């Protein structure tokens, strides 16, 4: 509607290059943008081509971008699909099923293009990400801290980063206590390592959508409940949560307003250089045999990161490359400081 012109902001969820667009009436008039860019909509008079500027760009001239409706239609016609097979369990303890985002063996072997693969029903290929209407949000001082979701491939160092943050300020950061149906071990206490519940109750809770994620390991269920996130936030702490990227969508609500950080591996050369003597360690415990990284692990990490980025990149608020752990940690700290003090572009539905 014309009343909105110049007042509407959108986040681009895909890359756009007018020079490569056969449909655009005039390539020179097009506006190129990258996934994640914030655009100010200047006109929606035309159903196919909107006029937009990069947010904060002083240049008063707007450029053409495909309208949401038009782009959705184009995407629907040539939807890139990726085949990803989640491994439920693995003999390597460290992978668990918590971070089991792996490539199918076929994919690894043939090294074929990610875009030629078949559809996998586990992943939400239904939504066609084009643009998301956004507005600026600043955490009110009287409001609870927020949920920070960390995603990344197995072995990228996500858990080390999480642990470093936690111990740096236990008053400020908190993590969820998972539920499990396995018997409590003698040194464990209920509500500390886990919340121990019966299989029957777990199944009921699953039915009632109480879990953000859950899985099965050695005939027991494990899962993270939505309430466990709430109880960390209720303590006025930043809740650090690491989940598989397909669960992020469900957490993006007004209540949680998650800030999503993707921890990305560096180049394979850097992985070889920096992780030579390192080991893959488990997300929950180091009791299981931590094994040295193999060349296969590195390749899988890179591929898995590529898939995550291509499928879920539009949900990431920030990307941090974990080349050197200290540098990545400092970047993470800076991001957290900004979260407290600066404004962020969030979906408009979170602003009401
Ligand atoms: P343990 O029984 O030795 O404490 O844990 C066994 C496995 O359960 C670990 O490898 C861990 O990764 C997994 N696990 C622990 N908590 C959760 C959780 O909240 N969700 C999921 N999906 N897996 C978990």
TrEMBL record:
<keyword id="KW-0677">Repeat</keyword>
<keyword id="KW-0965">Cell junction</keyword>
<dbReference type="GO" id="GO:0005923">
    <property type="term" value="C:bicellular tight junction"/>
</dbReference>
<dbReference type="GO" id="GO:0005938">
    <property type="term" value="C:cell cortex"/>
</dbReference>
<keyword id="KW-0728">SH3 domain</keyword>
<dbReference type="GO" id="GO:0031334">
    <property type="term" value="P:positive regulation of protein-containing complex assembly"/>
</dbReference>
<comment type="function">
    <text>Acts as an important adapter that promotes epithelial cell polarity and tight junction formation via its interaction with DLG1. Involved in the assembly of protein complexes at sites of cell-cell contact.</text>
</comment>
<comment type="similarity">
    <text>Belongs to the MAGUK family.</text>
</comment>
<feature type="domain" description="SH3">
    <location>
        <begin position="5"/>
        <end position="75"/>
    </location>
</feature>
<dbReference type="GO" id="GO:0016328">
    <property type="term" value="C:lateral plasma membrane"/>
</dbReference>
<dbReference type="GO" id="GO:0070830">
    <property type="term" value="P:bicellular tight junction assembly"/>
</dbReference>
<comment type="subunit">
    <text>Heterodimer; able to heterodimerize via its C-terminal L27 domain with LIN7A, LIN7B and LIN7C. Forms a tripartite complex composed of DLG1, MPP7 and LIN7 (LIN7A or LIN7C). Interacts with DLG1 via its N-terminal L27 domain. Interacts with PALS1 and PATJ.</text>
</comment>
<keyword id="KW-0472">Membrane</keyword>
<protein>
    <recommendedName>
        <fullName>MAGUK p55 subfamily member 7</fullName>
    </recommendedName>
</protein>
<keyword id="KW-0963">Cytoplasm</keyword>
<dbReference type="GO" id="GO:0019904">
    <property type="term" value="F:protein domain specific binding"/>
</dbReference>
<keyword id="KW-1003">Cell membrane</keyword>
<dbReference type="GO" id="GO:0071896">
    <property type="term" value="P:protein localization to adherens junction"/>
</dbReference>
<keyword id="KW-0796">Tight junction</keyword>
<dbReference type="GO" id="GO:0060090">
    <property type="term" value="F:molecular adaptor activity"/>
</dbReference>
<dbReference type="GO" id="GO:0097025">
    <property type="term" value="C:MPP7-DLG1-LIN7 complex"/>
</dbReference>
<keyword id="KW-0597">Phosphoprotein</keyword>
<feature type="domain" description="Guanylate kinase-like">
    <location>
        <begin position="145"/>
        <end position="337"/>
    </location>
</feature>
<dbReference type="GO" id="GO:0005654">
    <property type="term" value="C:nucleoplasm"/>
</dbReference>
